[in-house]
Amino acid sequence: NLQVLLRRRPQGEPTPDDFEIREAPAPEPAEGEVLVRARFLSLDPYMRGRMSDAKSYAKPVEIGAVMEGQTAGEVVASRAPGFAPGDTVLGGFGWQRFSAVPAARLFKVDPDEAPLSASLGVLGMPGLTAWVGLEDIGQPKAGETVVVSAASGAVGQVVGQIAKIRGCRAVGVAGGKAKCDFVTGELGFDACVDHRGDLKAQLEAACPDGIDVYWENVGGAVQAAVFPRLNDFGRMVMCGMIAEYNDASPRPGPNLMACVRKRLRIQGFIVSDSGWQRYGRFRAEMLGWMRDGRMRWREDVVDGLRAAPQAFIGLLKGANFGKLVVRVD
Ligand code: NDP
């Protein structure tokens, strides 16, 4: 069995020496497992994370272990009901020719529906990523502008095309003219911005009505350029920040990659949007807590309207202690 192992953890950009290639005996499927011969192996950005032992949402690949990855291929032997030699499957495991995989982790696919490799891309994890992220977070509505970074890539291609299907203006961000031409010409995005050029000016021209949904695949300079152009009630789908995966030390400022790793939801709001419509319910509940002694409050009462300016100046510096109010004389 030809295998690619992780030899050591890369510092910054991975190098070939971080991997080891070896021949090993093919695995024997245990009860409930299926032996899969890989025809295609998917290579994906998340694998950079698995090579590192930094705390993340998934366990790292151990040193000396087969690199993690999904394959599509065919069943050569089966000890699980529902799978027979010759079946075409998605879900083989690792950077290796043969893998023994629990049947529950395999999807049988019909090889006549689409080319097998598509089950690792548009019909696979990246396509599913695009579809789920738009449905759950992006929620594009007809007429909105959707910007997608790494637009010519596995996830980005699908995001922009779904946005078009939903009636949006789709704007890609990609590196270089060939990729940008593909994104507009082949994929049918309305525009594509080359992140090697003047991002700010290009984004302004491509998004005259601002940006309603930003699909973040990249981070770095692209994120910085897109962020100030988001419209009111815009949504940012935090999918990945590949531009920063090889960083050896953290960049200054908050790192929004935590949104991906920890599935954070960061959402702003303005109380007046819909708060006062709920004032009655709020007031009743709050009065109850106050009466029951479950709510305490502290006020900082300043005497006289003349004291208001100084008190206000102090508020911005922490001179108040509790809710600042003026007792009007
Ligand atoms: P792609 O096929 O898009 O390949 C990566 C692309 O990223 C490159 O082609 C390049 O495109 C772009 N890129 C790389 N480095 C930089 C950089 N320094 N600055 C700007 N662009 C850069 O990969 P995928 O579609 O598989 O993945 C895209 C993103 O989605 C990744 O961040 C990945 O981690 C994330 N992801 C997240 C998932 C999730 O569940 N949250 C699932 C799957 C993927 P270009 O030359 O155009 O810049």
TrEMBL record:
CDD domains: PGDH. Signal peptide: none annotated. Residues 1-23 are annotated as: Disordered. It comes from Craurococcus roseus. Keywords: Oxidoreductase. Pfam families: ADH_N_2, ADH_zinc_N. The keyword Membrane does not apply. This is NADP-dependent oxidoreductase. The keyword Oxidoreductase applies.
